[in-house]
Every structure is written in structure tokens, then in C-alpha cells.
Amino acid sequence: MNKRTLMILLGFLVSVGLAVAEPVTLTLAYPTGDSKVEIMKQIVKEFEKQEKNQVKVNVIVVPVANPAAYWGSYFDKLQTMIAGGDAPDVVRVAIEGIQTFAARDLALPLNQYQKDDPQAVLNYADLAPKLQAPFEIGGKVYGYVWDWNNVVIHINTDMLKAAGLPFPGPNWTLEDFTKYAKAMTKTVNGQQVYGFAIPNYYFGTEGWLYANGAGILSDDMKKGALDTPEAKKIIQLFRDMIYVDKTAPVPNATTDAVNLLMTGKVAMIAAGRWPFGSYVANKFTSVGVQYIPLMKSPRTVVFGSGAFPVIKLTKHPKEAYRLSAFLSGAYSQKTGISIDSIPTRTSVMKEVLPTTPGKNWEIYGESAAFAKAVQSPPGYPEVASIFDRYTSSVYSNQLEVGAAMKSASEEITKVLANQ
Amino acid sequence: MNKKFSDAIAGYLFILPVLLLFIVLTLGPLVGTLLLSFSKFSLLSSSRWVGLSNFFNLFSDARMGVIYGNTLFFVFILVPLHVIVGLVLAVSVEGLTKGSAKYLFRTTFFFPVLATTASVAIAWGMMFDTSFGLINWFIGLIGAKAIPWLNSPVWVYVAVAIFSLWKFIGNSFIYFLVGLQSIPVELYEAAMLDGASPRQRFFRITLPMLSPTMFFVVVNLIIGAAQIFDEPYFLTAGGPGDSSRTVGLYIYETAFQYHNYSYGSAVALSLFLVILLVTLLQFKLQKKWVFYGN
């Protein structure tokens, strides 16, 4: 072997050595505006440590300008990134998007990777099965659920006390609820305060519809179902609370129900655990939570959840799978989910939920057993927009409930048929 | 190379940066919109040519009439409002003798233009709230009934107009102010010597001399009002129902929320053609009322 050949061989071996030592770099897309971006960076550092720094993770903060269509705008950006050949490896996706991702064949099924490396998921059974279910479509696992939220009634306990009412029990009825709303509607220091702020958003309304055995869509999500008697009953109830009982203010696009509850302008709102972030920030502790009144047994509670699916185009599927699994792990949930959503691991729920600064927080954990996923078909943004358009007309007293819900259902059915 | 030719080259080189920007930022997207409107486009799958299908959909879209009607109504409300209030403010500020007061009012009236629409819209949304809003609180003090600012298909126009006026009046105000400052003082001095009253000076000198500025402001206002987006987007989300949904907002929703880029492009193209026709008409008519001083 001459000197020149030896040099070439040495050069080749050094190059190969360097290539071997080069860590894999993954990208994790996360929407901006989510308060957890900084915490997420801390969590991925822990993942890098676990991978002995052989895997690097770049957290890409995807700017979302439109809070009203938060997930829609985010998915749009993600799709643009994918179409532009700049696909992230792992993405933060809420339940509203996973159907679209799966339908468009964008997400990587993780079954085989889980089979080959089951340790990465760390106690799969600890993930509440009902919450994990939306991320398993047609027998394919598209991610491991990280956080979730539901819809319950938040009650301002100071206003409850002032009205001389006891904290309601879990089986309170619709009659009890309207009685409470009437009792807490009054004029205080010349200012009108109301019993309840109606939830004029898709997720919040669906919580009420589920409680009455209805839904915005049919069970197979192929048709609109707002024109069923059970669904119309709820929308009529909300409309009557505004215009007949006058126990609820007229909602509009900029209504901030959480703020109204904290400032004592409304006594009850319908929300998940997310307002607790604002409650803590504002040192608001006069609050308790209870289920939506029991209308149909067995009780059903709506839920929305989020996970970290792997994009099919990833060049590093094994590492991306491990990152996806790590992000649903106990460390990630304990670090990233403190006050504004609910962990999905039963073990972590037991640790985190007792820190909720509100009466009857236990229902957040309990409801995982009878929770039903929010209906989020492909084409969800358009369906949600139709829902908003017609319910806003009803709550503004422009349309009668029956006619509005019939038109809404027809339009929704048409949109779903085109997906 | 003769001088004429080298001058021409130099001229083209001077306009080259702007020309490139125009091609990249205006002409390119316009051609892209045109192509999209004739296709069925998807970000993630192959697109196909669909001819005039998107335009047929546009004419059969049951909501299009209401949405174009809303937009037209906003044009009819907002353009005169911005012209009249902007002009009154500009004339009042120009009439001030104290420099510091002039500076103060100029800054005050223009300041909202610089504020982020999203943040101030939240505050205005709270003020317009039917049940808890500051405006209705004041109205309640005089014993009047609360106004459903954002919950009525009629009042929502008024709410959007008030917000638009507060937020964007600084633009027409500043144009008129600059226009007023460019009118030669000698004209007023000569008119005063001839005994012209303030009213005569305004209608015989100020308005004719301001007509080029007025033309510019009106053209821009009509284009801006026809494209109105920020105000309904942040304040009403197009509601209640479709009451305040404008063509601009509908284009955004169709293209960027429902991912129907092709249909969104067809609607955008229809708006472009309407604006183009109206603007050409304005240029044609301006010969009858705009005074360029020659």
C-alpha cells in the first residue's frame, strides 16, 4: 500500500467515524401562544440526556396568529411546512387534528415501533384508555396521549354563599341548575350579575349535548345532528336563559367567561381545567367545580386531548417514536402539565390533581372513566364555523332554534360529505 | 452605445429593485391566485385543472350575496365617515396657532393607527359588550336601554364603524393635513383682502386645492373598505350569523381555515375585479372634479 492510498483510507475512516458520531437531529413542532413552549424545551433536554446526547431535538415554535382558529391555523402552517419539504419529525396535535392527519396519511403508525421497543412508552396501561382511544384509528396507534381537558361547571363559591345555596351535588338536575342560575342573578351595587355564562364554543356546547345524550354530529360523524330534539333542547335552554329567564348575558365573539367569573359578573361558567391558570395568576380561590347537571344516565363527559404524532416523512422513525413516547411519559406530564390541563397517566393524575386550587377537583380525575371524545372529523374547522354561525344567530335572537339547527345540520352534513 | 440607450439602461437599473419587489410581492401572487382559481389545489396532493368550476360555485354560493352586501354596506358607511371626520380634524388642527397643540393633536389622532389591531380590538370588544360593556354602562346612566352592539345585525355595523373610525382615522387625517399644508398661504391672503368669508375660503380655495388629496384618500379608502378584514375579524368574527362577514374575511376563512385555496382564490379574484372596475371608474370621473392647479 503506497502512501497516497494510505492517506485516502485514513481520510475515509475518519469521515466514517465522524458520521457515526454525528447525533441524529429531530424537529418537534409546537404552536406558539401555548404557555408550555419553554417547559417543552426543558422536557426535550431530558430526552436528549436519556438518549445520551445521540439525539438532538430542535423545538420549532410555529407562530399562530389567530386565537379564534388556533388549531386550524397551526395545522395550516404544519401542512405548508410538509408541502414545502420542511416536515418536522414530531408534532404537537390536539384531538381536533389527528383525524385529519390520519385521513391525509400524514402520521406514522407506531404499532411496529412499539412492538420492537415497548420500553419507550413506559407502562402503556397507565395511559387512561378512553383518552388514548382517539389516537388509535383503525387499529393503528398514531401517538400517545399527553394532556386532556373536559367541560364541567365552575361555580363562584362567594356568590353561591351570598345566595344562601349549598354546593351542588354531582347528580344535580337541570331544574336545580336553572334554580341556582336564577338565585344568583341579581343586581349588586347597581351592576347586573348573572347566574351563568353560556358556553358559545363548540367544545363547551358539546359537553352539554353529551350530557343530554346528543351531539353536534351523528355518532359516525357523517351527518350533522344539531336538529335532534335532545340537541335542540340544550340550545333552547341557553337561548331561554338569555331572553326568557334573563339569567345569562348575551355572549359574543370576544366574551371572556373566565374573567366574568373571577370578577363576580357571572356565578357559573362551563369550562375544563384550563381556567385554573388564570385563577392562580389572579389569586382567585373562591371557586369549585361540579359536573354538568345530570340529564341522561349513565353520565357522559366530553373530552379533548393532545399527543405528539410522528410525521410519516421523518428520516428517523425510531428516534422520533422514542421522542413521541417520551413526551407522553410521567416526567413530561409532571413537568409540563401543572394547572391548565389534566395529565393522561392515571399515576400522574393522582399526583397533579390535588394541587388544583378549587373545591371538588376530584371530578377531573373521575371523569376519565366515562369521558367521550369531542367530535372532530376531517373538515373540523368548517364544521365548527357553521356551528358558531348558527348558534350566534340564535343567541342574538335573530333565528329561532328549530330553523337554525335544521339549517346548521344540513350545512354540516354537506361539508362532511365532501371530506 | 449611444447616450439615449445608456440613459435608458440607467433608468431601468434604477427601477429594477422596485420592479423586482413588484414582481415578487404583487404580480407573482396575482398570477398565482389566477391559476389557483382555475384549479382544485391541495397542499399535500396533486392539483388538477377544473376550468370555471370555482366561479360557478361562487355564483351559486347562497352566502355570497349577503357577504358582498355587507362589504358594500361597509364601503358606504366607512368611506364618507373617514373622509368627513378626517377632513374636519385636519382643518381644525391646521387652524391651531400654537405649535405644541398642533403636535399634540397630530400625535393623538394618529396614535391608534400604530397600535396593534388585535390588542385594541379586545379592549373595544369589552367596551361594546351588551351586558358588561363600558359604553352601555354610560348609556344606562342616562336611563337608556342597553344597545346590543355586537349582537344585532344592525348595531354591529355601527360598532365596526366606531372601531374603524377610532383605529384608522389617523390615516385620512394625516393625508388631509399634509394636503392643507401644501396650499399656498397667498391664496388665503388674497381672498381675505377681497373680503371672502371663512366659509367662502373653505369652499372656494381649500376644497378645490385639496381635491387631488381628496381623490387619493377616497381611492384608498374605497379599496381599503372593500377589503375590510381586521375590524370584523377581531371584533365580531363575522357574526352574529353572517351579519358582519365581509368578502375579505370569507376569503381568509375559505382558504386558510377550510384549506379550500382554489375557491378562496376565485372569491379573491372576484373582489379584485370589482375593486379594479370601481378604481378605473374613479380615475375616469376624477377629471370632472379634481383640480390640479393648471
At a glance:
The complex is a heterodimer of chains A (419) and B (294). Chain A is α/β, with parallel strands linked by helices and 419 residues long.
Structure explained in plain terms:
The complex is a heterodimer of chains A (419) and B (294). Chain A has 419 residues and is an alpha/beta fold. Chain A has helices at 3-21, 37-50, 70-83, 95-103, 111-116, 129-132, 157-162, 174-183, 202-211, 229-243, 257-262, 275-281, 317-327, 330-336, 346-352, 362-366, 380-395, 401-417, and strands at residues 24-31, 55-62, 90-91, 93-94, 136-137, 140-141, 147-150, 152-156, 186-188, 191-197, 266-271, 287-290, 301-307, 342-343, 371-373. In chain A, the strands form 4 sheets. In chain A, strands 4, 7, 13, 14 and 15 form a 5-stranded mixed β-sheet that branches. Chain B has one domain: Orthogonal Bundle (MetI-like fold). Chain B is 75% helix and 1% strand. The chains are: A alpha/beta (419), B mainly alpha (294). Chains A and B meet through helix 3 and helix 17 of A and helix 5 and helix 11 of B.
Annotate the secondary structure layout.
The complex is a heterodimer of chains A (419) and B (294).
Chain A: H1 3-21, E1 24-31, H2 37-50, E2 55-62, H3 70-83, E3 90-91, E4 93-94, H4 95-103, H5 111-116, H6 129-132, E5 136-137, E6 140-141, E7 147-150, E8 152-156, H7 157-162, H8 174-183, E9 186-188, E10 191-197, H9 202-211, H10 229-243, H11 257-262, E11 266-271, H12 275-281, E12 287-290, E13 301-307, H13 317-327, H14 330-336, E14 342-343, H15 346-352, H16 362-366, E15 371-373, H17 380-395, H18 401-417
Parallel strand pairs in A: 1-2, 1-3, 10-11, 13-15
Antiparallel strand pairs in A: 4-13, 5-6, 7-13, 7-14, 8-11, 8-12, 9-10
Helix pairs in contact in A: 17-18
Chain B: H1 3-37, E1 39-40, E2 48-49, H2 53-60, H3 64-94, H4 99-114, H5 117-128, H6 134-141, H7 155-181, H8 185-193, H9 198-226, H10 230-235, H11 247-257, H12 261-289
Antiparallel strand pairs in B: 1-2
